[in-house]
Input
Amino acid sequence: MPPTVAKVILAPRERQVLEGLADGSMIAEVALSLQIREGTASGYLKLAKRKLYGVRETAAALAVAYATKAIDRPNLLDPGSLYLPREQRELVPLIAQEMTAAQMATVLKREVDIVRRDGRELLGNLRARNRAHAITRAWTYQFLTVEQVIEWLR
Output
């Protein structure tokens, strides 16, 4: 039986803002689509992050939101349908944990420049617009799982 964490309940607008950011949109685009001010959307995002175990980055907020079912999980695709080199796959849970390139380099015992290059290539291979979108795409291809997220939440 996989480990679990408590389900997080987001207010409707918090949920809408987070779901809007999941596709790689910027906060201004999400605010425009929801017909609210950008500052208001940012406020909802801040509240959602606090509820999602106090994460600071949107990428981490999405990872936790998927793991806790605070937002609907994307439809899963066959991980074999997208090849990601091991060096890039290893970055996914570290991005979800809000690590910087320097922190990832330390954990992985690699040069920072190499980690940055692998990160850029990861975004390209996932066809992701930014780190938050990369988390959604990685979740879709099952390179990030509930078990991984729950492990670092504990």
Q: What stands out?
A: DSSP finds ten helices and no strands in the chain.
